[in-house]
Amino acid sequence: MISLRNVERSFPVGGRRSYVLRRITLDIAARDFETVMGPSGKSTLLFLIGMLDVAWTGECFLNDEAVHKLDRKKPMALHKEQIGLVFQQYHLLDDLTVAENLDVPLSYRDIRKSERQAMVGDTLDRFGMVAKKDLYPSQLSGGHQQLVGIARAIIHKPKLLLADEPTGNLHSAQGREIPELFRKLNSEGTTIIQVTQSEFNATYGKRMINLRDGWIE
């Protein structure tokens, strides 16, 4: 599903280049559940795969499509079509309600409004948030904002789910439920890459990718 070849990401620091990712070569098959751990570079790798970062060198293929050869607009179209992303800092739209935030990824697709409303309703029920559907993000706790972010990432049934510290702001019970949800999604065919510092969450993945000083160990 995903192939990276000699991918590097660096930033200018004091007249030189500081590398966050070095010569990353990696293959991730459809239906894999990968865990990325390490002291640094994890989120950079996730955002690169999610096509939210274009300032890198090397080659990236998504379902045999050469992402590195596409113009800047096409990767974002691929992202909206095939990828769900759970941000560590939520990134909810403040002027939209919970229900409206969940509808955003559906609005990019050719889905009738009645079907979208049904999908939003089912997702609200699945996450136990029906009573909060008309609230705005500022009216929610950090944990509930995180749940909305996760629900929004999976509502359109993406082929690839990228999760950046998905349980970092949840209490212990919710923190156990989300890995189980990810395992179920993976069993249903969703490819998952999670970035985590949690040894417990890491046990849910099928393979561990350790990053250190920009290199895969």
Low-confidence stretches: none
> What is the residue-averaged pLDDT?
91
SS-derived structural category: alpha/beta
Main sheet summary: 6 strands, mixed
Q: State the helical fraction.
A: 25-40%
Description:
The protein has a single domain, classed as Rossmann fold, CATH 3.40.50.300. The strands form two sheets. The chain has a six-stranded mixed sheet with strand order 6-7-8-3-9-10, sandwiched between helices. Helices cover 35% and strands 28% of the residues. The protein has 217 residues and is an alpha/beta fold. The two termini are 22 Å apart. It contains seven helices and ten strands. Helix 3 packs across helix 4 and helix 3 runs parallel beside helix 5. The mean pLDDT is 91.
In a nutshell, what does this entry contain?
This protein is an alpha/beta fold and 217 residues long. It contains 7 helices and 10 strands. It has a single domain, classed as Rossmann fold.
